Amino acid sequence: HGVRRLEALVLTHPDLDHIGGAAAVLAAIPVNVVFEPGLAVGKDAYVDLLGAVVLRQTDWRAARAGRSMELDGVRFDFLWPDDRSIDGSQDANQISAVMRVTYGAFSALLTGDAGVEVETLLVERHRESLRSPVLKLGHHGSETSTAEVFLDAVQPEVAVVSAGRRNRYGHPAPSVMERLNRRGIPVARTDEEGTVSFAVSEDGTSWRRLE
User: Fold this and answer.
1) How many separate helices (H) and strands (E) can be counted in the chain?
2) Pick from 131, 132, 136: which is nearest to 146 by CA?
3) What is the reported pTM?
4) What span, in angstroms and rounded, lies between the C-alpha atoms of 112 and 119?
5) DSSP for 21-89?
6) For 20-36, how does the pLDDT look when each residue is reduced to its tens digit (9 = 90+)?
7) Of 44, 60, 147, 204, which has fewest CB within 10 angstroms of its CB?
8) How far is it, in rounded angstroms, from Cα 208 to Cα 201?
9) How far apart are the C-alpha atoms of 103 and 38, rounded to whole Å?
10) Are residues 9 and 25 in contact, defined by beta-carbon separation less than 8 angstroms?
């Protein structure tokens, strides 16, 4: 696609399907900063990633609640994990970075592989600021995520499922799809449609999904 550099590379957590290839990206093109939670694991892909960060002298920052980044008027706010959750969990999904992206009046909530427990905590801490027209469902649409109380808070107009074509896990889960259908929330699926893109006006007051 002609990309020559990246301002930031955000890696939600150290599972292979979320960091696989990251070291190759760092080796191929300049990256200004890498954000990731920093859960210490001995997986080869994670060790390779850290090695690539050091080799390329790339800035590394912990993706933690309360931290943010702004690029060309687009703001990225990390809502999860916090320091306490990192210290208390060995389940990579439960420390998956959750990020809210805002541009003017538009926002999208990107949840990585966060599960229902994390969703519940996010509602308790950020209920009023979770509302976003675009929601990337947690854990590829697995039944471990997308709780009713979370949908109540976010009130998405479109739900995006990032899942591999004919994946062996059966993502997205039928129960999650039914939950969305009952609410009349349209779903965009990468396993059926490929890349999912949105166009947003300069002030963020209008947006549309690109077909």
Assistant:
1) 8, 12
2) 136
3) 0.94
4) 11
5) THHHHHHHS-EEEEEE-------HHHHHHHHHHHHTT-EEEE--TT-EEEETTEEEEEEE--HHHHHH-
6) 999 999 999 999 999 99
7) 44
8) 9
9) 27
10) yes
